[in-house]
Here is the input.
Amino acid sequence: MRIALITPARPTARAGNWHTARRWADLLRELGHRVRVETVWSGADADAMIALHARRSHESIRRFARGGPGRPLAVVLTGTDLYRDIRSDADARESLRLATRLVVLQDRGPLELAPALRRKTRVIYQSTPPVAPVPPLRRAFEVSTIGHLRDEKDPFLLAAALAHLPAASRIRAVQIGAAMTQEYADAARDWERRERRYRWPGELPHGSALRRLARSRLLVVSSRMEGGANVISEAIAAGVPVLASRIPGNVGMLGSRYGGYFPVGDERRLARLLQRAESDPAFLRALARAVRARRPLIRRSRERAALRNLLAELA
Here is the structure.
């Protein structure tokens, strides 16, 4: 099958949608298909389209669907699709209607859709190769937060939480990711000046970011919305415990009984969890066990089988 794989994301180290598209292209080729990855559909002949992002890929989706009702078309819903755009954006809603299948990246995703749309929705968890362990720093309790600096990520919540830790805390925070605006870059540098325990190295190559994650004692995911954070899959692969905002996208990745959630935007609750993780080894071990228990969800063989099933349904 000839497949047009559409992603509006740029190829950067922390662009989750780009990594999803690149990985899916590899998996689809392993399954024997011909795949063309584009940011906007060129109109090249294709038997099926898989488009990431209902709103941003809408023009490609609409033009492909003109080829005929029911033409094989899967739309992968991102966090901004699920938790914002499909409520208010006409293009995103039309993409839902035109799709013959919808894909979400964690098991809470279908709950955001009307029952008629759920019936054509499939859940595909993102796979991640095993991440080699890296010894943690001895001189500090290093905590990382990883992702582009933009509003949906609430990027400076970890930095703000540091002010609520006791002076004796050994916690040090590193924020990895590119600033999406000059204002975010200025804010990150300001946090570095004001908070001695915070560092912003900016965007790192993917391998370097993974090594920093692997040596971290904790990963903090403070997002206001997520479709299924790729960095959580990477933390699961590395066995690194996660402290995450209690939003559907994070709960769908880590499970409803996971013990490391805090309310969205609550820096004090995050600080209390950080302090507990630093001072209570049993709590930290329990989080690590719960993270490792999610590893079957992110196996490459599982993701490949899910894609095979999706294409069988499309065909």
About this structure: Residues 2-127+299-314 form a domain with the Rossmann fold fold (CATH 3.40.50.2000).
